Amino acid sequence: MSATNKSMYVGIDCSKGYADIIAFGSNKEIAEPAFRLYDITEGYRQLQSLIARWLDIGFEHIYCGVESTGGYENNWVNYLQQMGKNDPVHIARLNPKGVKSLGEARLTRTITDSVSAENIALYLMDHPGKVHYLKPSQTSKAYSEGRKHNSFIRMLKKQRNQLGNQLEKLLYEQLPPLMCYCRHGQPLWLLLMLEKYATAASIKKAGVSKLSKIKGISEEKAKSVVAKLTGSDIQSSDHIGSIIKSTAAQILHLEGSIKKEKLNLYSRFKHTEEAVLLTSITGIGEQSAVEILVEIEDINRFETAKKLGAYFGTHPMWKQSGDGTWGNHMSKKGRSEIRGVLYMCGMSAVRHDEMFKGIYARARAKGKNHFSAMGVVMNKMLRIIYGVLKNKTKYNREIDYKNQQNAQTKQKQQEQKQEELKQEKQTKLERYNLREVSEMPVSKRYAKKKKQSPKLQPEECTGSSAS
Hints:
Elements: E1 7-15, E2 18-25, E3 30-38, H1 41-56, E4 61-67, H2 74-83, E5 89-94, H3 96-105, H4 113-126, E6 133-134, H5 141-174, H6 188-196, H7 200-211, H8 219-230, H9 238-269, H10 273-278, H11 286-296, H12 305-312, E7 316-321, E8 324-330, H13 336-352, H14 354-365, H15 370-391, H16 397-429, H17 444-452
Parallel strand pairs: 1-4, 4-5
Antiparallel strand pairs: 1-2, 2-3, 5-6, 7-8
Helix pairs in contact: 3-4, 5-9, 5-11, 6-9, 7-8, 11-13, 12-15, 13-14, 13-15, 14-15
C-alpha cells in the first residue's frame, strides 16, 4: 500500500480503559499533539470526528497503528476497520518488539504512553514494508472467537498443571510410597482415591474392599497400595490431608472442564469447509484441523506460505557474524502451542505418508537430528496447509509432487543465481584489497575460508564504491 505526501500517520498506544494518540504528517511534523481518549462509545466517536476533520483539511489517507497488547487494542481496531469501509482509514497491528527497537534506536530516555504512541507512528513511516494493514473482510469473527476459546482451554491446562505440581510435592512429603505411580503424572484412579482417602491412616482403614470399588483400582492394585503404606512409618496430619483431598478434587474438576470445552470447540468447527479440507492432509485429524484453523483465523492475512511459516515460527534462521556461523535453526517465534500441534501431525505423517517419510529421511541423511528433521517436516506441512486453504482444494499428492518438481527446478536456478550474486558481492567487498590473505591480521578460521573461496583477479577488484 503506497502512501502519498498528504498522508497522516496516527500512533495509538492502548492501555486498559484508554488510548494515547498522536498524529504525524508525511514530513514527520506533528499534525496533532498527543491526547487521550477513553475506551467507551464517546471516545470512538470523538476519534471518528477528528479523522473526519483531518480528511476535510486535505489529508487523503489516514494510517493508524496499534501494538498487539493482549486484547486491549481490539475495540479500537474493530472500530477503525469499520470506518475503513467508507473512509480512507487503514489500521495495522504491530509487533511490540519492532516498536520497542525503534524507541531504543532513537535513544529515548523517558518512556510514557505518549512516547510509545509517537514510536508507533514513526514506525509506520519508517518501515512501511513491515506493516500489514488489515481489511474489514480479513477478520473472521467465528475463528477469532474460536481462538479465544482455545486460549481459555490452554489457561485451564496451565491451572491443572500448577495444581498437579503442588499435589506432587504434597505426596512426596506426606505419602512418598505413592510416588511410584506418578512417574507420568497423576493417574485418574489415584486422584479419585485421594479425593476420598487423603492420608495414610484413612487409606489403610478403607482397606482393599473399599479401594477396589474406586474406578480404575483392581483388587491387586488395592492390595499393592495398602501394602506400600503398611510397610512404612508415615505420619500424615488430617490438616495436610484436607489440602490433598481438595487439590485432587480441583484437578478432577479441571480435567472435566477441559474435556467439556474441547468437545464444545471441536464440535463448532470440525464440519466447516476449511476443517474438512485440512483433514485431507495425512497426519491432520479433526481436532488438529480445528486448532490450526482457529490460530490462522483467515488465510488471506498471509500473502505467501513463507509469511505463514514466519508467523508460527517454523521458518529456518541463518546467522553469520565475523568468524562464527550458526546453521539453519527453527526460529520458534510466535505461539509455541501451534508448533506442538504441527509436531504431532508431522510424526503421524512420517509414519503413514511416503512423501513426508522421504522428507524426514533426507533431512536425517544430511546429518540433522530427529527434532531438526521434524522441523523440516513441520515447515513442509504448513506450506501444504497454506496451499490447501488458499486454493480451497483437498490435498492431492500428484499435484504436490508436480509442485515439488517445479520447486526443485526453481531452487536450482535460484541457488545458481545466489552463488553468482554472492561472488559479485564478495568481489565488490574486496575491490580495494589486492594483498594475499596471509599478509592480513585476520583469524586462522577467516584465512582458511578465504583460501577456499575463488581467487579474485586484480581487474575484478577495481571500480568505484558507487558501482
